């Protein structure tokens, strides 16, 4: 891998590591994971934006992404309940499109978008209101989807991952590697439940 590709792939590698940790240890270290989620989210968003505003200027990209990572970590640390709600939103955002696609008569256009928003909002509220019951499942879902999609981006050399590339990798991962996603989710839930009971 060329040094430039390695730098471009840094957000994807961080997402892959974070997703694996989230899948198997998301509930156990919830507060730390929220801080880490805020940092990774801030870093990735800033890196993606700066890679288009300042193409090739890696120092400016990493400094901006570093500042955004600190800001994201502080935001998620201070807004604990909002972070819980965001976990539910992200889990819903990962699962809802795949669920809608397998419906016998999948809605499209406005109806499909409305159903997606309702499902995502419902998962966010479920995490917020019933977080003890749902967070193990939600963190495993986020980790399972995130790790497989990130690995798909790396394998297919989509290092400079733009939103279009991420959507494409999500679709391809769901279509081709759904079994791997389900295994990751099931493994994460089982592992976290066993760890919780042992404690």
List keywords for this structure.
mainly alpha, globular
Assign a percent range to the helix content.
over 70%
How many separate structural domains? 1
Order of helices and strands: HHHHHHHH
The radius of gyration is 17 Å
Distance between the termini: 42 Å
Number of helices: 8
Q: What's the average pLDDT? A: 78
Low-confidence stretches: none
Strand content: under 5%
Instruction: List how many beta strands DSSP finds.
Output: 0
Structural class: mainly alpha
Please tell me about this protein's structure.
This protein is an all-alpha fold and 199 residues long. It has one domain (3-198). Helices cover 86% and strands 0% of the residues. It contains 8 helices and no strands. The chain has helices at residues 3-25, 30-53, 58-78, 80-101, 109-129, 131-155, 163-176, 178-198. Helix 1 runs antiparallel to helix 2 and helix 5 (109-129) packs across helix 6 (131-155). The chain is globular. The mean pLDDT is 78.
Put the structure in a nutshell.
With 199 residues, the protein is mainly α. The chain contains eight helices and no strands.
List the helices and strands and how they pair.
Blueprint: H1 3-25, H2 30-53, H3 58-78, H4 80-101, H5 109-129, H6 131-155, H7 163-176, H8 178-198
């Amino acid at each position: 891998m060329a040094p430039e590709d390695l730098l471009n792939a840094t957000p994807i590698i961080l997402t892959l590591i974070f997703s694996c940790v989230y899948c198997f240890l998301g509930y156990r270290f919830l507060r730390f994971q929220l801080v880490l989620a805020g940092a990774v989210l801030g870093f990735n968003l800033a890196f993606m934006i700066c890679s288009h505003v300042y193409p090739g200027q890696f120092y400016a990209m990493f400094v901006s992404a570093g500042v955004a990572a600190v800001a994201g970590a502080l935001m998620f640390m201070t807004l604990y309940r909002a972070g819980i709600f965001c976990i539910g939103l992200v889990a819903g955002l990962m699962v809802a499109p795949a669920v809608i696609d397998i419906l016998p008569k999948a809605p499209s256009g406005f109806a499909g978008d409305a159903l997606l928003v309702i499902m995502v909002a419902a998962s966010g509220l479920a995490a917020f209101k019933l977080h003890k019951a749902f967070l193990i499942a939600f963190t495993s879902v986020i980790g399972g989807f995130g790790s497989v999609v990130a690995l798909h981006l790396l394998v297919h050399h989509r290092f400079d991952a733009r939103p279009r590339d991420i959507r494409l990798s999500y679709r391809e991962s769901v279509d081709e590697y759904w079994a791997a996603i389900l295994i990751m989710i099931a493994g994460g839930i089982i592992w976290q439940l066993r760890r919780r009971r042992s404690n």
